[in-house]
Amino acid sequence: MPDMQTEPHPEKLNYRTVQFLTSAPTLAECPEDTGAEVAFAGRSNAGKSSAINALTGNNKLARTSKTPGRTQLINFFRVSDQQRLVDLPGYGYAKVARSMKDEWQRHLAFYLEKRECLRGLILLMDIRQPLKEFDLQMLTWAVQSGLPAHILLTKADKLKNGPANNTRFAVEKALKEQGLDTGVSVQIFSSTKKTGLDKLERKLNAWLALEQ
Fold this sequence. Notes:
Elements: E1 19-24, E2 36-42, H1 48-56, E3 74-80, E4 83-87, H2 98-114, E5 118-126, H3 133-145, E6 149-154, H4 161-177, E7 184-188, H5 197-208
Parallel strand pairs: 2-4, 2-5, 5-6, 6-7
Antiparallel strand pairs: 1-3, 3-4
Pfam families: MMR_HSR1
Function: Necessary for normal cell division and for the maintenance of normal septation.
Family: Belongs to the TRAFAC class TrmE-Era-EngA-EngB-Septin-like GTPase superfamily. EngB GTPase family.
């Protein structure tokens, strides 16, 4: 069959072959700052690991835990030699000292603002509890740094289509009112039902394109 798409489009990457690369306890131990990278961030109960596992079709790639907040490392996953996905530490439910949380905030801010190969931020929020303090902080960092952000409203299978779409509209409106809509897009997502998976893949393909 002929290709129906006539406009140029990013290479379609195969996320099923994504492999774990390394874990970095500090920013100094991250892989070399080259190529293209997209980071996943979210509160510890936002379903971040489940989303990465759904994307890659590998339920064991990113850790999922009944105890949110266990992952305290920056985890890198190889898409290709020059393309990576990054799982940033969950935040919100981790039972750690306030001083440690403050330290991680500084690390995250530095990573978002200084990592040259970072092309975009996937920010995950439970669709039933969007735009918490941490979410707004991450979006503020991204917007101020000129970093594109894409919000996944996760666990959309917990709501019917009407309420789910109403939440998406409400989030978009709130972002505009707070001046946090520049370079920020929003979608509904469910790891369980794979809702919105194709849209997430298209966003990643565009951001990870090596020729920009």
